[in-house]
What we know:
- The protein has helices spanning 9-41, 45-81, 85-112, 114-119, 125-138, 142-157, 162-184, 194-219, 235-267, 271-307, 311-344, 351-383, 388-412, 417-425, 427-439.
- The chain is mainly alpha-helical and 472 residues long.
- Helix 1 runs parallel beside helix 7, helix 2 packs parallel to helix 10 (271-307) and helix 10 packs parallel to helix 12.
Amino acid sequence: MKRLITGDKSFYKSLVFLAIPIALQNLITFAVGFADNVMIGALGDAAVSGVYVGGQIQAVLQMVIGGIEGAIMILGAQYWGRKDLESIRKVTAIGLRFAMIVGLIFTIVFSLFAEPVVHLFTSDPDAVREGTFYLRIVAFSYIFFSISEVMIASMRSVETAQIGMYISIIALVVNISLNWVFIFGHLGAPAMGCAGAAIATVISRIVEMTCSVLYVLLRDKKLNFRLSELKNRDKLLTRDFIRYGLPLMGGNIVWAINMLANTKILGLYNASVLTAASVAGTLNNMLYICMNGMSSAVGVITSKTVGAGLYEKEKEYAYTVQILFLGVGLLTGLVAHLVRDPFISLYGISSQAQTYSRQFINVLSITMIGSCYQAAALFGLVKSGGDISFVFKNDTIFVFLVVIPSAIIAYLLKAPAWVTFACLKCDQILKCFVAVVKINRFNWMKNLTRDKDGKENVAVAAAGETEEQSEG
Length: 472
């Protein structure tokens, strides 16, 4: 008889041990952006809108690097389940090479073409001016951010999650302190507004990268990664990284396009709507932090369990995850509704922007329920369990056939901004129906590792299959 709630105490211990530092790191990373938003909010709607548009490029980079991170964490954690550290080091080196290339490209392109990029998303001259100042400078942080993310992902893949939290605390202190100095002009520095926020971000990213690299190279005793690994080439693992990393990156690029489309469509209204989207999005990200930390922890546990070949145990975990995250979603939606007005009051925005913000947060308080369930199910289980291409295909279908078309239609029909916003978020509920069917078929558990001779450990646990491996 199947168990809907696992009695395996090690599952809950691992979940808490991994989720808390990941969630805290995400919270601290969020706090950096939140501090920027609140401090910039004192400069008016144009500044908030400009930084929001400029910040979308950071979100796009994060999506692309997230694909590289995902490949490191999924492959790395599966090899961790097999205790194959040599392969994890090779996977980390491959990911680091790709991340440095991506970060460098983003830095060059968006520092040189900041104004036309911002102009793509808003025609408001003040927002364009502020966004250009911000993007032109903050683009220099992208290469440092890319390296940091790979270093932290490599540590998470071997269940060392705390280091990312500590590094983020350092980055937070640096960023907020320098925001105070450069945005408003303290300690003898000129008041630079949006440009000051960008300078503070660049410096904090440099500090973040330095700390992460030094920890991995000098303090970590588990993975023992060295820069000399970058010289080594493993064709089979590189092929696996590309094979499994491309769908991850493709899925993230789809979401990046979706986010940019969100900004473009909402930007067709006015600056107050974009400001409200920034406020609502910030609250969404803040409340999503706990869920995201737990989902990432589930992903590591899933990859490790599948890599070790413990398929029946993973099925038990899957039932537990679904029930747990449905409850998290209900709680998160309720909290969003309760904190709506106090949160909006933190911003010095216009009354019109406040009205839009209330409407957008009302929408989010419903869609967050679906976000928590389907994100944990599709990322924490399906994607991390080895069925990577399914999530990419599913996201592509929803974004290009449901989300963007429905939002464009709503705008063309002159629907209120909140209706268009709801169309942009509708997939968070609709994908739950797909997730519940996919998860409970259990055809997503796939071993992606290779043995020492390079032979693939191909294994798929179909529904009803009995576990062959001993759990000992």
